[in-house]
Design a protein that fits this description.
The protein is of the alpha+beta class. It contains 13 helices and four strands. The protein has a domain of 360 residues: Outer membrane efflux proteins (OEP). Strands 1-2-3-4 form a four-stranded antiparallel sheet. A hairpin with an 8-residue loop joins strand 3 and strand 4.
Length: 523
Amino acid sequence: MFNLNSINQKFVSAGCTVFTALFLTSCATKIEPLTEDEIKKVVKQDAKFIAENRVSVDKPVTIYDAMAMALVNNLDYRVQLLEQAVAQGQFDVAKFNMYPKLNSTVGASHRNPARVSNSESLATGLQSLEPSTSEDRDRSYGDLTFSWNVIDFGVSYYQAKQEANKVLIAKELRRKALQGLLVRVREAYWKAAASQALKERVDDIIVQVKAALRKAEKVEEQKLRPPLESLRFQRSLMQILQEMKAVKDDLEKAEIELYQLLNIPMERGYELSFDELDFEEIPIVNIGKEELIEMALVERPELREEIYRHKISYAETKKAMLRLLPGLELKAAENFDSNSFLVDQWWQNASVQVTANLVDIATYKTRINAAEVQEDLAIQKRMALQVAILSQVNISYKDYENSMENLDQARKVSDIDEQISRLVDISARNEVEIELERIKTSAAAISTKLQEFQSYANFQNAFGRLLFSVGYDVVDIDGEYHNIYLLSDHFKEQFAAVSGQTMTSVIASIKERPKQTDVNGIY
């Protein structure tokens, strides 16, 4: 037999203990900003992880090696990979929401005093029975309940379709990130190549200018020339020195940009594999502008993204309509209760329940209109993007043509300046007076050679942006690439085929696809 006072004391004691623990926990919680040591620790761990997962090549880096390294190492692209993985995980979870619910409950209870009740006669108002109980003081119970809500199933179905489209959106964003990354790598690589090709010449002319300045200062001190002539000479040299230092700064920045895209440290000091003959290579796109536009309207990741977003809005409209319908819920359960007063301690029950939110029904039109407006917005965004894509392809194609013409002009000017520099250099061996002219022409030759290389980099950039504007995939977005050398060879083959069979076959396959006439047919 239980001691009532003893049990009450135990409950009071336990309650006080729990309350005290919760109170102390709440008092102990406070705002704790990161310490400098914690920040340094995280930064150190991140740097270690980046270094350990960095992939490189053990040879001078070609343009295709650079693209392969960027694909494997670039952290921004890794973010897109993880975002696609997150979207895939959310889709996997959403699929399970369509399944019926199967809930299990197990419990035990103790009551003191026992659950005792009286009965009263409605006719006389007098107690009709002695105080009695029909429940054990200690009992265990449980149930296994199956339930399925038809409306929840429909909503979960469209939610799963939305999550599936979000996975595809993440994939298109990843395609866009990769295409943009390769464009930036092409431009940065050729600028860095120009830096590597001209660095020694720029350093040499800077040394010559500084030597000429020292000589000019001595001439001024010894008054061997008129002061005005000497100062003008020094001023011209200083202008050349400033120009060459500006050139050197631009060249160094190009290398930094390339290293950043490849996620490799500056101190690693990669040598780029090229010679000046590589700057003569001109990739040609032998495909008409109309075909490029047709390709862009099918392949551009941004347009595909908007189509998927429209499908998400369409599913949202369906979900809004379903939520307005009365909910039908089916339930079936297996139950157990150890209460000894029960005749049947195991029993089953089943039920059907219909529920409806009258407020939702009253606001039916408003809710549906809001969902349809959202769907219309997605359509308008898609159409606006189509117009923008047409403009981008036209502009990219024009830039490609103009950059080719600019490159041709830059090469001619550079060739002329090189010839002038050689002629003046020959003359300068016999004429000390034209030393300034020799330095000027050498600096001009370097500047125009730099402009030629920059024009080539701009041309490569225009070529890459033309491919970007049509959504051309140089590499399979779903492929797994672990061997960086094989990936480099793949890039080389793909870019070599851009003006040939590859893009032509892509366009041919687009033309063979059945045209979609009913937009609702894609949902």
